[in-house]
C-alpha cells in the first residue's frame, strides 16, 4: 500500500481567498446538484495531517513527517496503527497543535478529523463521524447539512458566505505581529462536501472550499518560531 497525498481541494468560484496556484471549480453547482446531500464544515487554520498504515504524514506524503508539531500524535498513532493497517484506513484531519494565523481559545483537542479514505474511496460523512468516534477523535465542526436539490445556486453561495462570516465554533482571534493576540476574526473558511461516499479520483467534483480574503496575516511563516496552541483548560 502506497501513501498517497491528500488531493487538492478546489475553491468555489466565489471564494475570495485564492492565490495564483489555487484551482477553482467553476462547475461546482452542476456537481453539487447531482448529490443528495452536502455537509458544510468549518475550515480550520491548521496543517493537513494524515494518519495512515505507513505513518503520520503531512499533506504531500513524500515521507512520514518529522515536524516537531506533529509529534503529539505519536502516542495515539502507536495505539491505532495496527487497526489502520488491518482496515486499509487513512484518517485525515486538521492538526492545530501549532498556532498559524488564528488563535482558537476554546479548543479541547489538537486534531479534528475531516475525512477518512479507504483504498479508492472517501467514506460518507456518517462514516467519518463513526470512525472518528471509534478512534476517539473529534471531527471538525459541522455548520450545516442540506438536501441540495431544494436550493438554487445563489442560495448555496449565500449560505456558504454567511457561514464563513461567523466566528469559529471555538472562538477565533487573529494572530498579529510577533505572535500577539489580535482582534476577533471570522472562520478561515467553509468546506462543502458530498455527504455520501465517493471515489478518490473524483474528489475535485465532491469537495469545495471557501477561504476568506487575505487569510494569512502573520508577519512571518508560522513555522519559523512556532508556538503550541493551548487547550481551553490550560489558560
Kindly summarize this structure in a few lines.
With 235 residues, the chain is α+β, with helices and mostly antiparallel strands.
Key traits:
single chain, 235 residues, alpha+beta, D-amino Acid Aminotransferase, Chain A, domain 1, six-stranded mixed sheet, six-stranded antiparallel sheet, 27% strand
Describe this structure in words.
- The protein has helices at 28-32, 74-87, 125-134, 153-164; strands at 10-12, 24-25, 38-43, 47-52, 55-57, 89-95, 102-103, 111-118, 121-122, 142-146, 173-175, 181-184, 189-194, 198-199, 207-211.
- With 235 residues, the chain is an alpha+beta fold.
- It has one domain: D-amino Acid Aminotransferase, Chain A, domain 1, CATH 3.30.470.
- Strands 2-1-15-13-3-10 form a 6-stranded mixed sheet, with helices on one face. It has a 6-stranded antiparallel sheet with strand order 5-4-6-8-9-14.
- The longest helix is centred in the middle third of the chain and has 14 residues, at 74-87.
- It is globular.
- It starts with 9 loop residues before the first strand and ends in a 24-residue tail after the last strand.
- The mean pLDDT is 90.
Amino acid at each position: 500500500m502506497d501513501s498517497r497525498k491528500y488531493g487538492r481541494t478546489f475553491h468555489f468560484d466565489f471564494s475570495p481567498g485564492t492565490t495564483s496556484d489555487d484551482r477553482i471549480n467553476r462547475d461546482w453547482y452542476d456537481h453539487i446538484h447531482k448529490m443528495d446531500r452536502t455537509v458544510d464544515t468549518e475550515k480550520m487554520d491548521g496543517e493537513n495531517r494524515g494518519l495512515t498504515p505507513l505513518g503520520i504524514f503531512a499533506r504531500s506524503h513524500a515521507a512520514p513527517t518529522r515536524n516537531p508539531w506533529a509529534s503529539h500524535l505519536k502516542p495515539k498513532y502507536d495505539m491505532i496503527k495496527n487497526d489502520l493497517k488491518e482496515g486499509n484506513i487513512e484518517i485525515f484531519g486538521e492538526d492545530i497543535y501549532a498556532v498559524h494565523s488564528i488563535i482558537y481559545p476554546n479548543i479541547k483537542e489538537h486534531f479534528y478529523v475531516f475525512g477518512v479514505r479507504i483504498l479508492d474511496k472517501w467514506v460518507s460523512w456518517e462514516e467519518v463521524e463513526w470512525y472518528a468516534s471509534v478512534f476517539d477523535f473529534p471531527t471538525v465542526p459541522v455548520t450545516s447539512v442540506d438536501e441540495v436539490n431544494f436550493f438554487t445556486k445563489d442560495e448555496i453561495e449565500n449560505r456558504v458566505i454567511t457561514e464563513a462570516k461567523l466566528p469559529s465554533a471555538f472562538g477565533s482571534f487573529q494572530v498579529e505581529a510577533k505572535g500577539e493576540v489580535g482582534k476577533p476574526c471570522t472562520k478561515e473558511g467553509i468546506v462543502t462536501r458530498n455527504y455520501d461516499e465517493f471515489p478518490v479520483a473524483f474528489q475535485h467534483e465532491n469537495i469545495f472550499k471557501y477561504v476568506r480574503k487575505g487569510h494569512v496575516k502573520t508577519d512571518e511563516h508560522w513555522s519559523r518560531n512556532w508556538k503550541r496552541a493551548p487547550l481551553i483548560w490550560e489558560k
